[in-house]
Amino acid sequence: MAPVSVRPEAAADASAIRKIHTEAFGRFHEARLVEALRARVTPYLGLVAVEGGAVAGHVAFSGATLHCYGAPFPIVALGPMAVAPERQRRSIGSALVRAGLAACGAAGHDVVVVLGHPAFYPRFGFVPARPLGLMCEWPAPDDAFMVAELRPGALRGRRGVVYYAPEFRDAAMTGNTT
Questions:
Q1: Which residue, 80, 98, 122, 171, could crosslink 176 as a Cys pair with Cβ 3.0–4.6 Å?
Q2: Domain containing 28: what range?
């Protein structure tokens, strides 16, 4: 196994990113969602994992909002994330999440939410969001909708509904969920 490095995505990575999401999810929806997020959402952060000179995985982070007592609080949503099927179970996804959370923190973001696998994300500091008073804008299993504070205490006194970028809602309405 070649060592894995993580770096910001580049325009030249677009076709590899599209292929990875399509193959990992077995459909085009997540790849299209990434392209829409990249084109229209601020902030947006896309990272690729490179192994043996080839793009092996991708993760996207995009702006979201916690509506807290009527006052919007900007946060970041993690997803979609994908690793090439033949390279899964090699800690590439973990490397992407760690690097992404570090980059989000360095950019001054305080809170990240994810709708993902409850056995995977807690190792990075994610905890169920509902007990903290955060709800997802659409129905989501309580154990799968999670949050991580990148700045301790960032959620103190904040409760409400998390709204993802409209591109996620558009995907959900058409059955193109991540």
A1: 171
A2: 4-173
102 found inside a domain: yes
Domain CATH for 100: 3.40.630.30
Does residue 57 belong to any structural domain of this protein? yes
137-156 tens-digit pLDDT: 999 999 999 999 999 999 99
Sign of CA dihedral 108, 74, 130, 133: positive
Domain count, the chain: 1
- pLDDT tens for 46-83 read 999 999 999 999 999 999 999 988 789 999 999 999 99
pTM over 0.70: yes
Q: What pLDDT score does 1 carry?
A: 62
Q: What is the 3-state secondary structure (H, E, C) of the chain?
A: CCCEEEEECCHHHHHHHHHHHHHHHCCCHHHHHHHHHHHHCCCEEEEEEEECCEEEEEEEEEEEEEEECCEEEEEEEEEEEEECHHHCCCCHHHHHHHHHHHHHHHCCCCEEEEECCCCCHHHHCCEECHHHCEEECCCCCCCCEEEEECCCCCCCCCCEEEECCHHHHHHHHCCCCC
Instruction: Give the pLDDT of residue 26.
Output: 93
Asked whether residue 172 carries a pLDDT value surpassing 70, the answer given is no
| In-domain check, residue 178 | no
